[in-house]
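Help! Submission page says 'invalid entity' but I think these are all valid:
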Amino acid sequence: MGMPQSTADPRLDVRADRLQEGGGGRLPPDGAATTSVNGVAASTQDTAIGPRWPARSAGTPAVEIAHLRKTYGALVAVDDISFSVAEGEIFGILGPNGAGKTTTVECAVGLRSPDSGTIRLLGLDPQADKDEVHEIVGVQLQASAFPAKLRVGEILDMYRSFYRRPADVTELVEALGLAGKRRDYYRSLSGGQRQRLSVVLALIGGPKIAVLDEMTTGLDPQARRDAWELIEKVRGHGVTIVLVTHFMEEAERLCDRVALIDSGHLVALDTPAGLTAQARGGSRVRFLPSGPFDAQLLTGLPEVTAVEQDGRHVIVTGTGELVNAVILALHAAGVTARDVQTDASTLEDAFVRLTGNHLHQNGDQS
Amino acid sequence: MTSLHLPARSRAPRAAFGQMVLNEARLAWRQPAGIIAGVGISLLLLVIFGEVPVFQQASARLGGLSAFQIYIPILIAFSIGVLALTYLPGPLVSYRELGILRRLSTTPVPSSWVLAAQLVVQACLMAVAVLTLLVVSIAFFGVSAPKNPGGLVLALVLAIAALFSIGLAIAAAAKTSGAARGLMAAAFYPMMFLSGLYYPVQLMPGVLQAISHASPLGAAVAAIQDAMLQGFPPAEPLLVLLAYAVVFGFLAKRFFRWE
């Protein structure tokens, strides 16, 4: 499947203008001075965030998971999940609660050992090559806490000291609005601030791959957008991002591709646009007619599949240029449509449709 | 193999351990209950006992020693016991409960470093407590300097190792910090009784004396007392302490869970 970001391989799409941005300045609009640089070209520039690993031969996926299976006793949490994530990609893992998203990423980062299947992070085995993997993978866990009586700055300094090539902490902290909080005790932080600290800590080691489990859960809308902006910026430096989320908007906005997981199975794997298209059963128009009209006027149209009454409103379902067709037909009959609302299908529809379908079809879909 | 050219083997920078010790020390300072109990209370008791005239009189029932002389090793053992049993397992268990150890295990730093950092901080507090007790009793209450300083250091090191092992075994056995507190209390108060804190061991019935000598703090008191007053401590209490260190150290290592 193609990726939506650009026509060429998005891995090569490094926004050089962002790299030199530094600090908290606003980013120029996308594509302002987009240059294609090879692979991890970011490593040759002295950038603040992001990895400074030597360039490696292209081709090895950042994350490669094959036939992953993990059970807890009788419960099969993850069953035969396979996918691979290209370097520099933002990869979303989407699914209902208990679908196996967290188990999948916890296996991926080596926190859990899979029952079967293989996992490679830039060619490394998270169980066998723990030391190397921990150096190049930054993790934000769904539930993590820190000692209540440590100050934010002390936690940051400590985590920074764990890595050989840490990121620029000041920049990370500013990007997520924690700059004024360094002297604050961890216990005095709000839930959202703790969450942002945990995102900063996932990126503090200048990782090559960042695995973020529900990064923006508990964040207010502004903080969420800040986090998205930071993630895009970090990706701009060639970092691969694996994002577990249940926010459709987040997946649509950020992810190059999305894996939809349900009941431990991979249900779909596509770009957000591709998933939406898969789910598109048609569009809907809802309107208030200026006067009564014969429903046959609309049901006779090739675009229309159904016409329903909803109080005084009429709902028409169909395909193609539905809105135009409906309004023209009404106009020809001397009826005006007021209060017209249309809804195109979204990733959310795709989610409901695909997981719904999946549940009825006993998981034979992927 | 991988085409990834990582810098020489990824081991966490040495400075990381320093940072961890620093943060553990800050936490100990900001939650000073451990310092107050482990250093303050024994010092307070020492000063009170030192001011009671009858405690300074040598007594035939106590083998020709004064009550004050008897109490110095007991208070030293008390400091070590409080810090190792009360203020070591608690943070470790809560680190596990809160997922701090789990989070650490995704970094290049081994989770065991946080445990080591704890031990360093607690050992420093113990050293401060012991030195304070010795200096104050020698400087202000006319106690003579330890007869055998080398033997004293050995006794202290073994006592600390034994109590650390027991504290870590409690941290390993306890699933929650509540359970850790319960186990700690169940271990600490009988041990303190057997060390002679509430009633002199010398006046206990024979069976209790034997149990006391086989108990960790009882053995510690006996070894410290000998090193201070007689000379190099006899093998028995030192071996008892060593046995506790080895057995409980093994249990702690065997059963400690990082998650």
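Support: the input was valid. A stray whitespace character was the problem, and the output above is from the cleaned input. DSSP finds twelve helices and 15 strands in chain A.
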